[in-house]
Amino acid sequence: MPARSPAVTTRSAWQDVPRIQVRRFAATSMAEAPALAEEILREIRREYPHLPEVLDESGEPMALIGIRRAIEVFVQHLENADFSTGRPTVPPGVFQEFGRGEGLGGRSLDSLQAIYRMGVRLAWRRFADIGQRVDIPPPAMYELVDAGYEYLDGLVDQSVRGYAEAAARQAGERLRLQRRLMELLLAEHHRGDPADALTERAARIGWALPEKVAVGVLLRPAREAVAPAVGEGVLLDMEYEQPRMVVPEPAAAGRPELLHRALTGWAGAIGPPVPLADAAKSLRWAEAAVDLMERGLLPAGEVLYCTEHTEALVLLQPEELIDDLALRCLAPLTHCGPTHARRLAETLLAWLETRGGAPEVAARLGVHPQTVRYRLRQIRELWGAEIDDPDRRFELELVLRAQRLRGTLGEGRRG
Fold first, then answer.
1. Looking at residue 61, what DSSP letter applies?
2. FRET label pair with 284: which of 8, 265, 366, 381, CA 20 to 30 Å apart?
3. What is the dihedral of CA 406, 409, 410, 415, to 10 degrees?
């Protein structure tokens, strides 16, 4: 078995620098750290004049404290060890707080990283000057540059962590405020002046109050489904078993197309557009449509618009009333057998819808005109003069259309 090759270790250039020179470099750098920190902060403020100034309890800028502390930690590591034994550890807390401040201030993390790079460049210039003064060899100074940029990565990592924490906290707070706004918006009964409360809650999340809204109710494609990207301005609450959304100005240019793309793979219903104060009414219709979808009475597997299914929603929702009306209106059919009664009902509905004679009804049903004439004579015998009463004909068409929507009556050849 061949012997293993010995592990290759990289020797730090700082190990070849006499300790007295290392101590002189560290002492000089530490003595100049306060001035260097002030120089860096001064340049940062010149390049980024709009950055806020945060003071500690003593009135000293937190940024200055953080910069000075970062320089001191870096120099202390250089004095006490060489770079072959590990890199400097980033001081915890301070730079994480900087990242948190950028997140809470709504600024990009890119600007913070640019500031850090500027600081490293300025620090390197000062260290290079000190290195010349105390005769630090170039290889050791090159190693110092590498260590500095690795140290920078640690600073950025701390800031990213703080930025992410702030972003998560802000997102959570916004969701909480958005949920409170939606609760008020969709409440059936309001206490006090809802207009003032809506204005105040909407302002807290920067939501412009629209004139009209449409409320949607969604069915999750899977329990762990990620919230759909419904776009800015659409309020979405995923905490419900059936998520809700409030769509402002639903007829606005591009809104339907955006929702269609965002809701691909989802199912549910979007209620009719209503004035803002009537949002709860739009929610009721959306909930009714979803109920019909789950019962197989409306198409499933997509997001429907209630305005495109008005007939089904109007005729299938008040079930008890329609059923009671059907019992009274279709009572003459109770004396016929089930199959014959269904055929008479289909013929009656086709006649009511076409307002035509036997040929038109026959074409609609796909049967012979003579068959239609026979059935129409039976219908007149069963209902008598009532069949010519406009109100009774309206009621008959109503209940028969409802039965067709429920699937208990044949479609015929509608056209």
1. B
2. 265
3. -80
DSSP state letters, 133-192 = HTT--HHHHHHHHHHHHHHHHHHHHHHHHHHHHHHHHHHHHHHHHHHHHHHHHT-SS--S
Strand partners, 275: 212
| Contacting residues for 155 by C-beta, under 8 A, at least 6 apart | 70, 90, 95, 116
Give me 241's structure tokens.
């078993």
What helix, strand, coil percent values describe the chain, rounded to 5?
65, 5, 30
pLDDT in tens, 217-238: 999 988 788 889 888 899 999 9
Strands 212-219 and 244-248 come out as antiparallel
> Which residue(s) pair with 217 in the sheet?
244, 269
pLDDT one-digit tens code per residue, 76-100: 877 765 555 555 666 656 677 766 6
For residue 157, give the amino acid letter.
Answer: D
Name the phi and psi angles at 137, rounded to 5. Answer: -60, 150
HSE value, Cβ hemisphere, 13 Å, CA-based, for 135: 6
Residue with the larger pLDDT of the pair 140 and 172: 140
DSSP labels, 257-289: HHHHHHTTT-EEEEPPPEEGGGHHHHHHHHHHH
Residues 80 and 23: their CA atoms lie apart, in Å, by 9
DSSP state of 303: E
